[in-house]
Every structure is written in C-alpha cells, then in structure tokens.
Amino acid sequence: MAFLPCSILTAARITLYSLVLLFVICIPVTGFASPSATLVGNETVVIDDVELWRAIDLKNHAVPVSLTDLSQLFAHANALNASLTNQSGAYLARLTLTNSEDRASSRFFRINANFVDIGLGFWQSNQTTSLHQVDFSQHHDTNNPKLMHAQAFELTLNPNESGELWLYIKADHYAKPLTLKIISSQHFFQQMFMTNALTIFSIATMLALAIIALALYIKTRLTVTLACSGYIGLHGLGWAAASGLIDDLFNIQVINTTYLGMILFPFAIAAACQFTKLLFNMNYHRKSWAKLFNYVALACIFFGVVTPFVPFSISFAIAHIIAVLWVPLAILTGFKMMIFNDFRAKYYLIGNILYGASLIYYMLSHSPLLPAASQAELVVLVALAADCICILLSLATWLQHKKQDYSRAYSQARIDPLTHAGNRHALNEALAKLPKHYLVCFIDYDGVKTINDKQGHGKGDELLQFGTQLMNEAFRGEGDIFRTGGDEFICLFSLKSANQFTPTIQNIKQMITDCQVRLHEKWPTSGISYGIASSLESANQSQCLALADQRMYQQKRSKKTI
Ligand SMILES: Nc1nc2c(ncn2[C@@H]2O[C@H](COP(=O)(O)OP(=O)(O)OP(=O)(O)O)[C@@H](O)[C@H]2O)c(=O)[nH]1
C-alpha cells in the first residue's frame, strides 16, 4: 500500500514533466510552423501576411543566396503578431508547396507590395537538389510580369512535385498587408490585364489632360491653366511612379522610382491649392480664403522639399496626412462656392467628392471594417482620373466665362451705346482692314440742335437712333457705319475692283435719298447731309476722309443758302 502512493506520485511527476517538455517543444514548433499550400486545378490560394512572414534583423544580415543562408536567417527570424502594413525592413517566408495534379502546374505568385527594393524567391523541390532562384526586385524583375501596384513571378511545378518556397523581401515601406496570392495563369493574366489596363488608362488620361492644360497656358498665359496642369500632371506622374509604371517602362537603376509618388504628391497638392484659389478668383473676392490656400500650398512645398531627406515611412505618412486634410478642404470649398452660386464649383465639387469617396474606400480596405475590399489603389486611381476630368471641365467653364466677359468688354469698347453703331475705336480697326479700293461716306444730321432745344434731348436721341437704324437697314451687307461725333457718322464701303466705284456711288446716293424720305416722315425739320470720297481720288485714308468731310460741309452749306 505504501508503494502505491509513491508510484502514483512518480507517475504523476513523469506525466507533468512530459507535458511541460511537450509544451516547451511545441511552442517553437507551432511558432515556426510554415504555412502550406496545395495546388489544385485553377484555384487561387491566398496566404495572409500575419502567418507568412518572419522579421529579420535588418542590419545584421546579408542577402541570402543559398539554402543554408535561408535556414539560418529563418532560425533567427521573429514571428509576427500583426500585419506588415506600415512596416519596413527585411522579411522572410517559408511555404510548403505541393502540386496535387498529375500534370505540370504553372502558378503566378503575387506579392501585395508596391515598393520592393529586394524581392527574391527560392524554390527547393523535394524531388531535386538544385535551388531555383527568381528575382522580383523592382530593379531586376526584367523576366517577370509587369504588374502595376504589386510584384509577381511565375513558378512551374512538375506533376505531383512538392517542396519549399522561400521568399525574401526588403523595402522601405509596406503600404498594405503583404498577402501572397498563388494564382493560376488563366486568372493571373485576366487580373493583370484589368489592373494594367485601368492603371495605364487612368494615368494616360491624367497626363493627356495635363498636356491640354499646359497647351492652354502657352496660348493664354493665364496662371490658372498652369496651376491646373501642375495639379493634374503631378498627380499623373506621381501615380505613374507609385504604381511601378515608370520603373517598368524605363527600368531606372539610380533610384527606385516607385518611392517618387509620395515625394511628388505634396507638390501636386500645392498646385491644387493655387488652382482652387485662382479658379474661384479668391484674390479678389475672398482674400482670407486666398491666404489659407497660399499657406497650405507653402506647407505642402515645404513637406515636398523635406520628404526626400526623411525615411520613406515618414514621407508616406506625410503624403497620406496631406491627402486626408486636402480632400475635406476641397469638398468644403466646392460646397461653399456652390452656396455662393459660383458656376465653377459644380465640376470641382463632383470631382473631389469622387476622389474623397475613393480615399474612404482605400482607408476602409486597410482596416478591419472592410477587409474584403480589394484593388484599393486602382479604385483611387480611377476616381482620381475622373476627378482630373472634372477639374479640367471646371477650368473649361472658367475659360468659357472669361471668353464671354472678354467678348462683352471687347464689343462694349467698340460699340456706341446710344445708336449701337461702331465707335471711333472700331472705325480705326475697320480702316486698317480696308482693301485697296474703297469709298468713304461722311454723314451729318441736320437740325439736331433745334430738335434738342425745342423737343428735348430725349427726342434728339431718338432721331440719332432712328437715323442709324435706317442707314443700317439701307447699307446692310454693303457698308459699315460708325458714329464719330455727336451727330456725325462715317460709312465705309470695301470694293473688289475699280469698276465698282461708279455704280456703288450711285447706289449710296439712292440709299441716302430713301433714308432722307423716311426720316422726313418722322422728323420734318431734320435731314441728312453727306459727302462721298473714293480711294481713287486720294493718296491715303486721311485724305479720303478729309475729302468726304469737305464735300459733306459743302452740301450742308448749299442747303442753308437755298
Ligand atoms: N440728343 C442728342 N444730341 C446730341 C448728342 N450728341 C451731340 N448732340 C447735339 O447735336 C448737335 C450737333 O451740333 P450741330 O451739328 O451743329 O447741330 P445741328 O443742329 O445738327 O446743326 P447742323 O449740322 O448745322 O444742321 C449739338 O447740339 C449737340 O448737343 C446726343 O448724343 N444726343
């Protein structure tokens, strides 16, 4: 009986020690257990970044080149408890892969990272000893698919082949969860087409609109068009860089161009501030608003200059804080301007609401609220392209109204407000355009002073208006009439050849006689005195005008002496 409690105690001790030992052994085993994937048919496998990547000490390691390097790095790597979003540095992943098919299976491995300085894949098959290496680094991915907003490489597994895929990645910033998607060729090419087509279309739209705005600036020299070009163009260039398009097109080795998007963004917003200020004429109508936009623009330029010299994660944060502050400011401005009945606000507001909505989607896609939201960058990019179209439309509306204002001012400066005949300014322009052969007719109304004195100035005005109307009707299509003084008018007739002089002079005389008859019916005490001179009789226009004036006075004098 004494033995029993002792053996039970020992057994309990052994069991306890075994459990502790098992627990101690299991911790690292479960902690470092590699995820695995089995390739079946066309199925897409998604591996979450939290369970995939292990953090490597960034400073004390060399880029792995062999299986031994990989194993050693992996042994000292730290498991992650969180997503790689907003992290930076070097990470390693080990994944057990099995091709369950009896045929070779080709798969694309899509790593959800925009910015990648070093990206290496190593395939160690269980069936062979050689280590197959693939480089998907941004600078060396020449043999890999050119996929915007992410990195990808292809791997073909033999029938029923299995093994381990190692992934080594290093970057200054991971903007989103570093999910790994293993996709069949069929699905990958579809996705690649859509992603690249939409990205290139959106960026091309932005750059084309920026060129249009720049062309408008060259033609009009209006600063608002230059600010518009900067606003749209810098956004377009920024996205071309951030999406990887510039890297894929030009393969620039000096710098990793994907990082440039964040550096260009503050400058794009500085241009947007100036565009907004100029579009709504804030310098004249809303000076405090103009000041605010100037300060925001200056702050953006400051951050734009600073960003290349700070760690990229800070540049990334600065750019995103600017976006989060800018969009509500732009929407608020659009709303306010709509309240002030400003015609330019319509497109401006629509564009910024679209862009703002896409940014909310982008932020939700990086939060637990909307984890299923995908292709957030693409959504933002397409919305931004639509925003840029709206921005150019608001500029077009601005220019249209400016043109109308200009035409109004132009005609107001050339039209006599009482009679609506051309004024002296218009006469000078018309004289400059006269052909070789022309006729000048000087006209002066008779008895205006008497009408003014006896019936009042209003009646005198009516006489001048009625007389101009009569002559406009009579000369329509043949001559242009201008008011040069109180009751003095000049009519210019352009002729195609010298043999038109005689018939045209006859015609003018007949037309003025007809006008006189109708004028007399309404104003019996008034009349028209006129003198005609031709380019044939004079050496220049001044002589011709003086001759016509002289003849008009001769006629007026002869009337008075009768
Ligand atoms: N109602 C009116 N009168 C004007 C206007 N501009 C000038 N006048 C008058 O037109 C007259 C022009 O002077 P005159 O040509 O000497 O006057 P008139 O009575 O036509 O004399 P004759 O030409 O010699 O027949 C002056 O009395 C001006 O005050 C105007 O815009 N409206």
Automatic annotation (TrEMBL):
Matches recorded under InterPro entries: 7TMR_DISM_rcpt_extracell_dom1, Diguanylate_Cyclase, GGDEF_dom, Nucleotide_cyclase, Rev_trsase/Diguanyl_cyclase
Catalyzed reactions per annotation: 2 GTP = 3',3'-c-di-GMP + 2 diphosphate
Q: Which UniProt keywords apply?
A: Membrane, Transmembrane, Transmembrane helix
Enzyme class, UniProt record, top EC level: transferase
What residues does the GGDEF domain cover?
A: 436-562
One Pfam family recorded for the sequence = 7TMR-DISM_7TM
Membrane-spanning intervals of the chain: 193-217, 224-246, 258-280, 292-310, 316-335, 347-364, 376-399
EC number(s) per UniProt?
2.7.7.65
Q: Which NCBIfam families match?
A: GGDEF
Name assigned to this protein: diguanylate cyclase
Q: Which species expresses this protein natively?
A: Motilimonas cestriensis
